[in-house]
Amino acid sequence: MTARFLSIGAAPKARSPENSRYRKSQSVWTLWENLVASEVRKMFLSAGQRPPLWYWRTTEGHEVDLLVECAPENFVTVECKTAAQVSLSDHGHLKILREEYGPASVRKAYVACRAERAYPLSKDGLCEAVPLAGEDGLLGRIGKMLPQKT
Q: What pTM value is reported for the model?
């Protein structure tokens, strides 16, 4: 598995970097992705833990923006999208990750987006669209995974 902390947003070859509209959307997308990863990282550091965060990308270019390691080869996956409304196809590489590492490799899958509240994306409940903040958001859900301080 290839892993690194943050994606800086590799530009697809079909889009021209000289296109100012593309550069602007690339900037927003990259900022959102880094904000999500930074906030999750900060949450682990605030709890006194080493952030178990990874980025997954295949040699074919399939990627998942953020993996939170729960156990060896068992993850919560996060795809970062700037849209307010997303669908299961926005976490399309989840299927490839599960095919490569097995269905048990993914504990839960989220698409962190600008939605006002969480909603399911898959019938089996594995994948949900979630806002970043709030108890029902990504940070609240991952925060529940952290050991409670006594």
A: 0.81
